[in-house]
Amino acid sequence: MHNELMPVACQILEFKQETETEFTIKVATGDLKVEHGQFCQLSLPKIGECPISVSDYGDGWMDFTIRAVGKVTDEVFKLEAGDTLFVRGAYGKGWPVDQFKGKNVVIIAGGTGVAPVKSMINKFANEEGFAQSVNIIAGFKDENGILFKDTLKVWEEKFNTIFTLDRDEKEGFRTGLVTKFIEEIPFKDFGDNYEVVIVGPPIMMHFAGLECVKQGIPEEKIWVSFERKMSCAIGKCGHCRIDETYVCLEGPVFNYTVAKQLID
């Protein structure tokens, strides 16, 4: 009988530095199953455990893009290819990808919020025609915070993209917050056949959601992902609870009609 709380010892296959404080590790996860937008719990013995979104995955492996901002992530940052990391999951409800099939998909992501949508966007890139069109607004604080530089180039070739920096100027990037560029997405050309995905820091998701509603986008067409401190990941500890909602079970992906009510 499978114990959903039991972590599996996994070998690190690759370690890639993304920025000064962010890195992506590719881990051999064997037969662990995952869906786009789900998260896993990563742990080190005698150190601790932390929830991390799966940024990409394939046959027998998963990528995790991590920011070194705490006890566990700082220690993971010191690991190398060949070292062991413990993984359990995947958990939660991911993006409703099947609902996006044949539609015009608009993805608005900020900073490390690009990680939870990366595997889904790569699916759209690899399965030509799955989505009618893909429109991406991806924003970063500054030039030093840009993630997935090689992947961004691929997306730029295949999709309608707007890459932004909050305050820096750089070739290939616009300057300003992502909310500034939502009005440039041709929603009127999509008719009723579109869905919108928003993920990033809470303040960014809040104002991006409000801007989308201002543009006349129905709330039921907007999807967001909550990044919260989850400990057990199976709805027992209550760390991620907002009112009566357990984010680890009912999320982290929520429709905006629900998400707008989830306020701490």
Overview of this protein structure:
This protein has helices at 71-76, 97-100, 115-126, 149-158, 202-214, 247-250, 256-259; strands at residues 8-17, 22-28, 39-44, 48-58, 61-67, 84-91, 104-110, 133-140, 160-165, 174-175, 194-199, 222-225, 241-242, 245-246, 253-255. The chain is an alpha/beta fold and 264 residues long. It folds into two domains: 8-91, Elongation Factor Tu (Ef-tu), domain 3 (Beta Barrel); 97-259, Nucleotide-binding domain of ferredoxin-NADP reductase (FNR) module (Rossmann fold, 3-Layer(aba) Sandwich), CATH 3.40.50.80. The strands form three sheets. The protein has a seven-stranded mixed β-sheet with strand order 10-9-8-7-11-12-15, with helices on both faces. The protein has a six-stranded antiparallel barrel with strand order 1-2-5-4-3-6. The protein has a two-stranded antiparallel sheet with strand order 13-14. The protein is globular.
